[in-house]
Amino acid sequence: MEDTDLANAAPEMALILAAGLGSRLRPHTKAPKPLTKVLGLTLAERVVCTLLDAGIRRFLVTLGHEGARVRAHFSEIARRRGVTIDFVDAKNWERGNGASALAAKGHTGDAPFFLVMIDHLFDPKIARALADDPPAPGEMRLAVDRDKDGIFDLDDVTRVKIDDGRIQEIDKTLDDWDAGDTGVMLCTSGLFEGLERAAASNKHGLSDGLRELAREGLARTVDVTGLSWLDLDTPEALREAERRLMRDQGRKTRDGPVARHLNRPVSRWFSWYLVRTSVTPNQISLVSWMLSCIAAGMMAFGGYPALAAGGVLAQLASIIDGCDGEIARLKHSQSAFGGWLDAVLDRYADAVLLFGLMWHEFAATGASLSVVLGFAAIVGSFLNSYTADKYDGLMAQRLQGASYFRLGRDVRVFVIFLGAILNQPLFTLAFVALVMNVEVVRRIVICARADAK
Questions:
Q1: I want to staple 292 with a disulfide (CB 3.0 to 4.6 A). Which of 167, 349, 372, 429 is the partner?
Q2: Is 206:20 a contact under the CB 8 Å cutoff?
């Protein structure tokens, strides 16, 4: 294969520098840095999962401090995640991260490869942005952030001076600088030549090697300003990482108004604790469904106290129902089966809740209207869920991820909750039946117009 073909080849491997001691994290944890946990996952597993999201399935890990323990942990990750992880012992790792990277020479192949730090969290879009602008033979690309105000630890960031996309200087002590180093880069084997030249001058930092390449015009940048990244080398940074993960990965763009403004803030609080346990998303889905069934039984039971208590429990179940997706995203454990199971259980929960409300009214009054409205509410709810995928897909395509008007399960359950505590079961059934069926018609009209264009 020619050099130009290699340069244009999609990266298939990532080099993870995991040899360091992580001394500044020692007050927080006694585990090796790769085994430090952030919201239920170790740094090692988080970086592998992030690169998996970017399409990488083959990894090379440099080992140093507590190498045997780190190797065993990465091997377990490889088994569970279905990826390939090889290892290289960085004998001179104590000299610096450049020495750790240099130990991988001869193990990365000819194609471009990602190089990342074990203690950096970053958006997978950063890796994709690098892959879209691959380095020429002998070059490397460094992802940089020009938003100085948005950098978490400005005093510790590696600073980069840039001229027309090329690195002019890189160091933590620069006074005149343009961007911060995110710690994510796409390299060729030319990286090792720069590291070797730096090592010959007794300089063993990764930045030292990049500086050597920069002098030859071989180190370029890719601007990823606006994308999330964080260097986790202090307890304060770990706390910031947890805050960002809860904010960024614990949210959905398809939330309805009740989920966005009421349910989600509470469910995140639950998820903050649940993510640190062994509870799985599917187990949470089952718990939410069981709570809904209990709520339906309470509402069906005669008397206002049982009706009100059932409504409160139904709303609690709706809040907990948001935790399964949050935990799945935070732990990178999303699955097609899990999403399908959650949807199936939600439909069962909707049916039993509306049936419980209908039965309460029918048992109290004997009015056949309650049965008609209950049937219409259940049908409307089912069709509302059935039409959601096409409608959400269309809105996402039109609005590029921005929020949009959506009436879904969060509104439906909240209305049931309000109707129960206000002791208005018949009015609630009528309202749900009307609103859900009108929403279905609205979606059909919108999708039909879009299809006609």
A1: 349
A2: no
Domain 253-452 belongs to what topology? Four Helix Bundle (Hemerythrin (Met), subunit A) (1.20.120)
Reported pTM: 0.89
Domain with CATH 1.20.120.1760 in the chain: 253-452
- Summarised one tens digit per residue, pLDDT across range 176-223 is 999 999 999 999 999 999 999 999 999 999 999 999 999 999 999 999
Contact 39, 275 (CB under 8 A): yes
The 3-state DSSP composition of the chain as helix, strand, coil percent (nearest 5) reads: 55, 15, 30
Domain covering 3-241: architecture: Alpha-Beta Complex (3.90)
Q: Are 319 and 295 in contact (CB under 8 A)?
A: no
Distance CA 229, CA 251 (A): 18
First to last CA, the chain: 46
Cα gap 371→377, rounded to integer Å: 10
Which residues make up the CATH 3.90.550.10 domain(s) of the chain? 3-241
d(C-alpha 292, C-alpha 285), whole Å: 11
Residue 201: strand, helix, or coil: coil
